[in-house]
Amino acid sequence: MTVNETGLESTGVLVWWGTLSVVSVINIVAWVVVARRFARDQDALDPRARRARRWHLVLSALFVAGCAFRSFLPRAEGQRIALVDSWVSAVVISRAVATVAELSLVAQWSIFLREYARAVQSRVAVALSYLPVGLISIAEIFSWYTTLTTNFIGSVVEESTWAVTAAVVITGFAMVWPRYRGLRRRLITLMVAINVAYFIFMCTVDVPMYWARHTADVALGKQFLSVVAGWHDASHRLVVTRGWSDWVDEMPWMSLYFTAGVWISIGMIRTPPPREADRAAGRSQA
Hints:
By secondary structure, the protein is α/β, with parallel strands linked by helices. 76% of the residues lie in helices and 6% in strands. It has helices at residues 11-41, 47-72, 91-119, 123-129, 131-149, 153-176, 182-219, 227-236, 244-247, 251-258, 260-269, 276-285; strands at residues 2-9, 75-76, 81-82, 237-242.
């Protein structure tokens, strides 16, 4: 692997990296605690709810592990930058880990929405629950496009697709919200609020950031790589830097992703299943 190192080192970057690493260890411990609690309490759940939470457990494990890996070894694929000089910092490895983690998280959202939609027999919301995994699979293709070619237009499409996916999830939850009461209505309200905040963040921060990078590259006449050449480049070239200017744009999304995103994933393991009273309420309002 060809590694270029810059001489700049920012204390702020080191503190940020250390904080992400510590939080990731705490997140792993939290997942273990939740997993042990599930093992103890699962017999009290009906078979469908138990099956859904087993899926949450597995998918959350993949997401927690993927985020921890990317916290310990941060890198930005399009720029080919990393904090650690190691073969495991290779861009293609990072992107592969991210792909598995992101599909796992969106699968959790789909399972959660589908369970609550089926309980109140909302056919439209159930149908919507099948869209996120497909949409994010498309987003991952465009993410790989940016990773390999260094053309940030792929990231523009990717992040826009994530925003659309959030809108789909918001719509699905909004459709079932009137049919729940008490704790479960408050939980759905929280899920809607999280996705609304995420949608706003994507539209005002992430998408504009990648669009600005793309337009800047085009203005400078940057020559983008082909997919084949990009695979070789992403497998072998790495710029190790700890400079503030190199990481400052990555910090907001990485910080939210590897902290709050993980907490939401772990939290979905413990979401209460819909109750029979909720289902009756849903049928009476259908």
